[in-house]
Amino acid sequence: MKILPEISRTLSEYLLIPGLTTEDCTPDNVDVGAPLVRHRVGEEPGIRVATPMVSAIMQAVSSPTLAVALAQVGGLSFIHQNQRVEDQAADVLSVKRHKAGFRTSEVTVAPTTPLGEVSRQLADTEQGVAVVTRSGEADGAFLGIISLDDFHLERHGASETAGNRMRGRDGLVTAPATVSLSEANELIWKHHLDVLPVIEDDRVVSLVLKRDYQAHKTYHRATVDGEKRLRVGAGINSRDFKDRIPALVEAGADVLCLDSSDGYSVYQARTVEFARETYGDDVHVGAGNVVDGRAFRYLADAGAAFVKVGIGGGAICTTRAQKGIGRGQASALLDVVEARDAYAQETGVYVPLCCDGGLLNDSHMAMALAMGADFIMLGRYFARLDESPSRKLQIGGQWYKEYWGEGSRRAQNAARYGQRGQMVFEEGVDGYVPYAGSLYDNVERTRAKLTSTMISCGSTNLRDFHRDAVLVPVSAESFKQTGAEVQLRQPTIDSGE
């Protein structure tokens, strides 16, 4: 038995000391972007996020709808793994379809395909345009395109063929495969197009849509891949990984993450090693969760793309009460950051850290980033929002969203917590969180707060923030001093003079 000579501390037990704010410290100059996956020191990571926020691997949080929204504002979502492999892969695929720029056609039909079938396929894939080829296959000879604007089932009949309503190739403006996205957009605006087919060897290799141009301008921080598709992550486990990983990779998942309350295990190492042996550096697998430097080193040596830090600190988690394991989030983070930096110095490889748990408000996020976290994983924060998959309901005159932990009986994710079969005891609760509105508004507000904190500390990027931040523990009396009771004005009653 060994007792560590420390008091386990939380993020709320620290404050930041302001640094020198120079003329360079303006909101436009502050970059809160962060690496998401391991990389050589001094080199760019394979995946980077402009907003250092990712969504938790939870049924109540990470749906395709939320994944699209979060990627659009510069973050990334991890589709939960407590479902059938094929269902999770379908969720990933649906996010990848919401790409901007060059799209792969989701619907290809033959000229003999009935309009009723064209309409059904477009509806099933949530697309507005189909490519028409001679064979009806994606690699067939290109004949034209047909969209919902080209026919009406009541007017033209469901049995009418696509060939009679399509816009033929000869009358279309097209572009070669060498065209850049900016050149493609120029053609779209010059010729008043809704869609521009990109052609190579008599076949369509991609489509550029006018509607994606506005989305790209609106979401200029979007997390996208090399083909301008939105990036999305997916949770995996250490049991069916040999089936789940290939399916998720095939669906287009950009990064995977092991979903476990305790990641310091040979099973996680074997899962990461399987991915690296099978796919090399092309597939990124994050691991965790851990609370000390030993566990970080173990997973980093196995090849983890990033490591999640935190056990029992989540708002919905009861692991500490049920099993007595964990560590204060600040203490865990500071220990693992030290190990991460030492590992980078020794090996030349930087393994990003994800702070997962113990984040009750935006100031805690700033504290975690100051302590050395590269990005933060949030469950409750996103569960409150319109884009989360849970129900919105009214209780006592106030609106709430349902929220339940993966360790709760509702989730029935027994294997995540090392329990076989049915859950013997719970490590999470099932409840409600106050409804907070749109993800877009909330993330923008959080970004503004993080930016303001960094400006006050004299930092314009996270690397400098890690290096230069000065923190101080706060006493109970400090909390009392900032907690003096003030009767808040009710705007609807007294608007003031």
CATH class of the largest domain: Alpha Beta
Distance between the termini: 65 Å
CATH-defined architecture of the largest domain: Alpha-Beta Barrel
Total DSSP helices = 16
What's the number of domains? Answer: 2
Shape: elongated
- Structural class of the secondary elements? alpha/beta
Per CATH, the superfamily of the largest domain is Aldolase class I
Task: List the main descriptive attributes of the protein structure presented here.
single chain; 497 residues; alpha/beta; TIM Barrel; CBS-domain; 2 domains; 8-stranded parallel barrel; 4-stranded mixed sheet; 25 strands; disordered C terminus; potassium; oxidoreductase
Question: What would you say this structure looks like, in words?
Answer:
Helices cover 32% and strands 19% of the residues. The chain has 497 residues and is an alpha/beta fold. The chain folds into 2 domains: 11-99 and 222-392 and 442-481, Alpha-Beta Barrel (TIM Barrel), CATH 3.20.20; 104-209, CBS-domain (Roll), CATH 3.10.580. It is elongated. It starts with 13 loop residues before the first strand and ends in a 16-residue tail after the last helix. The relative contact order is 0.16. Residues 413-419 and 493-497 have low confidence and may be disordered.
